[in-house]
Amino acid sequence: MTQSFRIRLYQMDAVVGDFDANLQKIARAADQARADGISMLVVPELALTGYPPEDLLLRPALIDKLTAADLMLQEISRDLTLCVGAPSAAAAAISDWALGNNSARPASLLNSLLIYRNGEHILSYHKQSLPNYQVFDERRYFVAGTQSMVCDLDGLRVGLLVCEDVWVPDIVEATCRLGADLILVVNASPFAEGKFDERLDHLKHRASVNQVPIAYVNLVGGQDELIFDGGSLVVDRNGEIIAQATFFAEDRLDVVWDGQHLIGDRVEHTPSDDALLYQALVTGVRDYFSKTGFRKAVLGLSGGIDSALTLAVAVDALGADNVHAVMMPYLYTADISVTDAKRQAEILGCEFSIVPIEPMVREFMQTLAPFFDGHPVDTTEENLQSRCRGVLLMALSNKTGALVLTTGNKSEMAVGYATLYGDMAGGFAVLKDVWKTRVYDLARFVNRATEVIPERVIVRPPSAELAPGQEDSDSLPPYDRLDTMLSLYIESDVSPDEIIDAGFDPVEVKRMCRLVDINEYKRRQSAVGPRVTVRGFGRDRRYPIANRWSF
Amino acid sequence: MTQSFRIRLYQMDAVVGDFDANLQKIARAADQARADGISMLVVPELALTGYPPEDLLLRPALIDKLTAADLMLQEISRDLTLCVGAPSAAAAAISDWALGNNSARPASLLNSLLIYRNGEHILSYHKQSLPNYQVFDERRYFVAGTQSMVCDLDGLRVGLLVCEDVWVPDIVEATCRLGADLILVVNASPFAEGKFDERLDHLKHRASVNQVPIAYVNLVGGQDELIFDGGSLVVDRNGEIIAQATFFAEDRLDVVWDGQHLIGDRVEHTPSDDALLYQALVTGVRDYFSKTGFRKAVLGLSGGIDSALTLAVAVDALGADNVHAVMMPYLYTADISVTDAKRQAEILGCEFSIVPIEPMVREFMQTLAPFFDGHPVDTTEENLQSRCRGVLLMALSNKTGALVLTTGNKSEMAVGYATLYGDMAGGFAVLKDVWKTRVYDLARFVNRATEVIPERVIVRPPSAELAPGQEDSDSLPPYDRLDTMLSLYIESDVSPDEIIDAGFDPVEVKRMCRLVDINEYKRRQSAVGPRVTVRGFGRDRRYPIANRWSF
């Protein structure tokens, strides 16, 4: 082989279901690669369909689309080696018992890495380890490959893996035993806080244990609740990073095989934890809008920190011209809330309106008076205020085509400190998986250079302002304590007793864990929002609503 | 062995997560069985935990609960053979790569049939075929058993299977090759229209092919979106039914092994398709309320057929005293709608209120006037009416503790002919998986003996009454045509082109299928509701919201 074999990892944003657009993007990348003297172009896992395609994979029409795409990819691969993540049909895939029962059809596809070379489809590797935990449902759609594989390119032996495969020591070792000079792994690995470090540790370990370089190309971009962070990278046989791409943006990362080693020329900086999280949210909003065809957002700006951060994210994602912030005061809204909301909107330069809800709340209360007679005031009246706001925002959305962003955080989602059809009304829940303590961190991050969120919004005690003098601390423990216990309970499956053993107040722990359990019905009707932890409230956490588990 | 071995299939309703209650129920059944001279008592798949326990199975505290339950089941089994469906911990279950990464933990449990005899745990069979399609996620939680098993009870050789196993010819045959005299299969098989016939055909076939009697015990009762229909049954070696239990109620089905054959003494009648569907809905409502701790329901009664049927179901499920029907007229509400709503409430004897929404709608319109200026009237104004109704019902719910039932049907859910946070606001969506054409069938069924739903409600043209003179047919094809094409598209994955080829109008088919696709965001925020078809809109159908698939 030539001494200099140039490999390009194309960290690509693929749109779910959009075969044409994804193919065109791969074709353009191939043209550029040829122009740049690249020998091998690699795109991520399921780049053809986007990830996760979910039940689109059950459509029988998929097979024709895959066949057509295969022909196009052959054509695209002229004068190039092209490695593409795509589903492929399993031979004799449908077992006899399922014949004639389409809806009960078991998995009949493979999650493959297709290798094209100079106009020919020369090889297909099939993912062996199919994740079926967390947000992943791959065994719903795919059967597992059973064979490790090395692709020989004029003497360069490239070991082929798809995503989860590289996390399984046996699979990596089996591939190396086939004589791989380097390992190529295509991925659709979604962001979560701390995930990049975990990924990196793992790759370093697998590389050094097997004394093999690993080239890791990741998908990038938001898809519903998932945000792929990119951060593609290459480690040498000692596990040292020799090339690293950017995060949360498409990128091309080139490395050269000189006959003995992989050589990279660029290692992008890894942003801080706060920067990664903030970029994840911006990416989530930007891509949800672009991929669902929305351009404008409207949100309720209350003068509190959650909506303030949501507004900052929205403006960074969509541009100030596309964001409408609406302050909807009521009797319990403090003057400083209105002032601070207005100020932030001015700083950011977005449209701002003040729409008092008093007339609507009054009419509802009058109409409901005969039914409420004899009942004490309770959260019903608070929910009513919140729901009037929800109706207003949805009316603005319906009339103008702007999508409503909800502003609640993960701490509130967890314990149900939110009003269904009120502040939970909207299409995208920006902070759904962001703990309140992280909301504060991110507000500081937003203000790192200049005041975007008025300082008073950050320092004043949090309040829903739904009753006179109300503060969050009337109903909930301080957020640092709350978030710690909730994170243990929700993200690490630690039982209430064990949390209490760790030094927390028994009554408080039991009350909070119970709130988590009984508020499943609210979360089930919540808007989709970006998953940024190891366990979000979307596909990640599947809990029964009717549930009588007691610890 | 004794010539007369009495087997009791206990068609049980288990509550998800409620180990204590489920164990107590099994203990009481064991006491009764001993008193009745029963040799072997059988309870359904996962009767210990309820089905589906979903992510409760990921809680580490589960293992202690299973250990404690095992001791109790040993005790319960004195002077009896007791067969219990329950999870069990897999030995060496956690593979090395997942150690220390709890949230990524792969399946480490088995879905087992535990056999206890005279105070001892004598055998555990582990389900070999784990469904991971439709509503099922069993590979998220369980590893598959690999061994067929026969339990020898003083010479009677009982082949053991769990649910899906009996659908796999190879597994049934392997069990028979071990010399099974009869097959015992414990199930948690949810209802869908036509499912009982499918199940029956299958059991008959497996029995006659293998010349083995099969005893099939099913779970019963509603759990969130799933409704287990019971209908446990026993077929002889020729596939003839020799015993059959009731549907949608707990039951005990006894059969006797006389040394050569199974002999049953009772074959319950199989209700008509309409009766089964109606009972499924009643069961769904009744059990969702009882298992989540609700007693009372409130719903909007519009004078239309959907809410009329929902009211009938609610009254049958909860009793007239526990149901509050609220008519919320607006300018476009016909007088006959108010009259008919009132009449049905009188017939059924439930609480009825009339709450005009005009004052609230007016205030919203005045407040929104500056924003709506220059925009034409569109569905925004219609949604506003619907949302005022939603806010009213939710306020009544919050104040009185009654759960709001939503009234939309599957046809509307499919094409998005519903208002998010308006008529979609509520805790349980009774008709969510019932096509409009089936709504008509069920209304006739409800009226089979006496007029419960005023005849005019059934015969008048359907209308949402959100605009002057509005009828459903202004926006949608006639429901018989609509339901046929939607059912093909949604339940059978038939492509629009193939639907057109079947003789439907191309423009109409493409418009309707597109409506299905773009309304995923609404369904994602809809209330849970009983699944009664082979593909409901719950765990069954997992579609991306951001989705650019084009046919």
Summarize the structure.
The first copy, chain A, contains 18 helices and 20 strands.
Q: What is the number of helices of chain A? A: 18
Shape-level CATH architecture of the largest domain in chain A: 4-Layer Sandwich
In terms of DSSP E residues, the strand content of chain A is 15-25%
Return residue spans of chain A where pLDDT drops below 50 for at least 5 consecutive residues.
Answer: 92-104
Helix share of residues of chain A?
25-40%
Secondary structural class of chain A: alpha/beta
**What oligomerization state is this entry in?**
homodimer
Description:
2 copies of one chain form a homodimer. In chain A, α1 runs parallel beside α2, α7 (305-318) crosses α12 (436-446) and α9 (358-372) packs across α10. Chain A has helices spanning 19-35, 62-76, 138-141, 169-177, 195-210, 273-292, 305-318, 335-348, 358-372, 379-400, 410-415, 436-446, 455-459, 472-475, 479-491, 496-501, 506-518, 520-524; strands at residues 5-11, 40-42, 81-89, 109-117, 120-126, 150-153, 156-162, 182-187, 214-218, 220-223, 226-229, 233-235, 241-244, 251-257, 262-264, 297-300, 323-327, 351-354, 403-406, 428-429. Chain A has 2 domains: 5-270, 4-Layer Sandwich (Nitrilase/N-carbamoyl-D-aminoacid amidohydrolase); 276-476, HUPs (Rossmann fold). Helices cover 38% and strands 18% of the residues of chain A. The first copy, chain A, is built from 18 helices and 20 strands. Chain A is of the alpha/beta class and 551 residues long. In chain A, the strands form 4 sheets. Chain A has a 7-stranded mixed β-sheet with strand order 5-4-3-2-1-14-15.
